[in-house]
Amino acid sequence: MNSLRTLTVLSTFILCSQTYSQSIFHSTSPLYEFFLQRDILINADLWGKEPKIIGAGLGFTKILGIPGLNSPYGELICRLFGGTWNTVDGDNVPLRAHTSAATIVSIRIAYGPWVIGQGGFPVEFSWPVQPSTVRPENFRVTLNDGSEVTPAGASIFPNFEYNERSTVVLVGEFGNRLNPSEDSEALYPVKLDIVESDIPLTLIGLKGIKKIATGFSFGDGETPMTAYNTGSGPVLCAAKISKMRTAGENGPLPFRGVLPNDGVALYGEDAQFRLRVLTTGGFSPDGVASVLPTDFERFFRIRCEAPDGQVIWITEANKVYEYMGKTLEVLGLADLGKTESDDPYTLAYSEDHDNQIDIILKGDVEAMHCITHVHIPASGDYTPFYNPGGPGNTPTPGTIYTNPGSEFLQPVLDAIDHPYTVTWFGQNAR
To answer: CA 430, CA 427: separation in Å to the nearest integer?
Structure first.
């Protein structure tokens, strides 16, 4: 009991000292620099014709960089920092199946700096970023009290696959957990700016066109940009349908353990088309558990409209829908775990936990051209999405967690005939 008391005091001291962690631990991880800042894009998605920020906001606080998370006292420490800890049956359960909190070392490897108990702020762009220009000094977050925050770290992780890389996650202190709709003491972001630096943030467009993002902004300076606000969990910010291709479904060597998890790896030659969606943050049924390849019917519907105006909704997987004399079938989801499982918690070790999901389809191309929207009902028979700050299955009483996402209808970009991707290695593009 004395050891537990000592551990509690120590963890509390570390938690109170977290504001000094950025100045004490300021060096950058060589693994981060060598693997995650290399300028490689392969079949990387563009989500729109114009380069811009399409989503940004505080995803969660306090759970990035927790000391002792892998120790026998990991659950206690995690809960002291405000993280959640899922109850999971089985032996040798991986840490990620218990919690979405991250160790100090894992944040060091994926984001560069040493940090303790900080938050995550995902930023989504319509074009992929040039990885070597993803640096914390290029971002400035303004809070509702007028203060400005420069992140401690910035990275393309967990969107590390070469055909992704349009999301940057910032690590730092961007507010508290109080609900802006309910508490006057709430501290939260209201604006994100891309600012000038010696190495400016750069986006890569078709044929390798480079666009410096300095001057881009998101937010109006008043509206809360936080997942602790009512109904502000992850929603969609882009969707695109294209022919199924595996080019770029790979990544830097240290991170390949979750791969392959693409449509072909899961569904073989039946995977003909990929409807890829981009969310405004990580996604989970509860904030920890994984989304399964078999979970299409739990979260999504697809709207189709034929040239004659007939509208149908695709609501079931492994069912052939016929209209206009053409067929369309959802096989399931991909870009999640690399193997199927009936247990969302034990599957968690093999999911990449980024903010992209692939809906894999087969059928006639004429039917695919009729897909207009992806719908997240988020209520009734459908489960809403939580980001990694959600409550899990055994939340700590009295702890504030992020809110679930709300209903959302996202238009789909038709890229079947023109994939709208870029392959780029430094100065070479195609």
So the answer is: 10
